[in-house]
């Protein structure tokens, strides 16, 4: 019983750590991508600055486009990460201002990641349209 | 009794396992990620055997239960070799292959000896509880191994995005399975730990590895500093 409880606590703690690192990796990779003009026009994003609160709106826009290169599972992970950051912001924000600032920055990264995913889907949809409809 | 969702998750997992192997072969990366591919092949074969047993003996049969838990234990041991394969990638430039091979051999012999002794001690009561405990311990050892590797990745400032992503996916897999088995051990009747989490966690690894090999180019680089969560910054 004690061993199982110990393993459970350690496993959940490490799961959180690996999950956060995995999502940070995706968000960091997303930040390196420059948004196209059409994506900026569609989302209203200017520069790299996008609020973390925009994530759900951008996610809904992403869902309007057909899936590209199996990105749904990663978006799902980022969605969970965004929710987790929201909890961190809510629980630790009043006590640890540094944590709130970090969570705000990360949530903005999540939103930018969703915008990048939207951009990829718009481009893919446009390619399909040009190849399959305009060519025939 | 299995429902349509169970079969869909099952088929998805199998397809992804096959995809990883076929994609690696097509891209001539099979040898580069040999241990990962061998694990995926073994996992796909185990999935076929599971399906055969469910169809012939039934999902609730003892034959299927034994196959499930013991194939799972063997696959976990095989997964240790994937972890050591990733150790080879991370420590490759340090000419440490000899030591890694020796360590993996020692771990295999150690695991085999301990498992043999545990099975010999418990051969009169090889119950589901025993196999759950065995799996829980095996996954926890895997979790410790991958955590040490993750520490090395951060310490050595590994920059290959693909390797980092493969290690993190494996870390999530080991920790999630270890937690699931610990939950089952603590609450044997908990449906979440018995029926819902295992297939989902089982699909995670082939899904994450397939996406990594497919979407992340070999030459992609990333500074590990961006992965350190620093709320005080």
Describe the structure.
The complex is a heterodimer of chains A (136) and B (233). Chain A is built from five helices and no strands. Chain A is mostly helical. Chain A has one domain. The longest helix of chain A is centred in the last third of the chain and has 38 residues, at 97-134. The mean pLDDT of chain A is 86. Chain B is mostly helical and 233 residues long. Chain B has one domain: Rhopdopsin 7-helix transmembrane proteins. In chain B, helix 2 packs antiparallel against helix 3 (62-91). The longest helix of chain B is centred in the first third of the chain and has 30 residues, at 62-91. Chain B is globular. In chain B, 36% of the residues are buried. The model of chain B has no long low-confidence stretch (mean pLDDT 84). At the A-B interface, helix 1, helix 4 and helix 5 of A face helix 5, helix 6 and helix 7 of B.
Secondary-structure element order of chain A, as H and E?
HHHHH
- Indicate the CATH class of chain B: Mainly Alpha
- Our measurement of the CA-to-CA distance between the termini of chain B, rounded to an integer number of angstroms, reads 52 Å
SSE ordering of chain B: HHHHHHH
Counting DSSP E segments of at least 2 residues, the number of strands of chain B comes to: 0
Structural class of chain A: mainly alpha
- What share of residues are in beta strands of chain B? under 5%
Portion in helices of chain B:
over 70%
Mean pLDDT of chain B: 84
Q: Any guess at the CATH architecture of chain B?
A: Up-down Bundle
Low-confidence stretches of chain A: none
Rg result of chain A: 18 Å
Question: Keyphrases for this structure?
Answer:
heterodimer, A: 136 residues, mainly alpha, globular, B: 233 residues, 78% helix
In short:
With 136 residues, chain A is mainly α.
Blueprint of the fold:
The complex is a heterodimer of chains A (136) and B (233).
Chain A: H1 2-31, H2 37-43, H3 55-64, H4 72-92, H5 97-134
Helix pairs in contact in A: 1-4, 1-5, 2-5, 3-5, 4-5
Chain B: H1 4-26, H2 34-57, H3 62-91, H4 97-121, H5 128-155, H6 161-186, H7 191-215
Helix pairs in contact in B: 1-2, 1-7, 2-3, 3-4, 3-5, 3-6, 5-6, 6-7
